[in-house]
Amino acid sequence: MTILVVSGTGTEIGKTITTAAVAALALAGGRSVAVLKPAQTGVAPGEPGDVAEVRRLAGEAVTGAELARFPEPLAPNTSARRAGMTPVGPAEVAEAAAKLATEHDLVLVEGAGGLLVRFDDEGGTLADAARLLGAPVLVVTPAGLGTLNSTALTGEALRARDIEFAGVVVGSWPAEPDLASRCNLADLPESAGAPLLGTVPEGAGRLAPADFRTRAAGWLAPALGGVWSI
Fold first, then answer.
1. Which among 8, 25, 27, 37 is annotated as catalytic?
2. Is 172 annotated as a binding residue?
3. Which residues take part in binding substrate (predicted)?
């Protein structure tokens, strides 16, 4: 696996922290890693974005790349249009990821929001970029009520486009999981039609970077370089 696309079933569910954990384990395994953020929204020029957060947690050895930054916290195409800026299309994302893959053992492409959020006004999405790359998609999902439906829908969208569904990671596993969360842990693989590959604990991004890197192996399954199992 040279390129892995990281998407989600929504926003603010732990994609960036999950991406950092995958990057940290790859670095610990002696691999060179790049993280590509096609479109960063809602962050002002000069402010740290998702790529900076991944590098802070996983290590400065991670190569970071951001193709575009749009000011308002909206879907990339909407934010670009409102700002009068040129959006980023799937072909540009695929070209940038492919170039990074010639120089790194692993390239992580972190999307914005869900799989079908629009990048441009032609309707291009992260799914289109993944299909152009022939890259698998790792889906980050919440723990609680409603996650089975949104994960199943994302899985259907991937399979309809003949994109490999690498697996699911719960992006913020609660310290005291409720009944729905506990049941979802068992039910997610069936709903997704893909393996459950980890649970990242809530608050993981607040750990000191050294602690984050030490603990990451316990959050992710062997397929992602860790030791986690259900």
1. 37
2. yes
3. 41
What are the tens digits of pLDDT across the range 178-225? 999 999 999 999 999 999 999 999 999 999 999 999 999 999 999 999
Match 């799937």 to its residue by tokens.
Answer: 90
**Is position 37 annotated as part of the catalytic site?**
yes
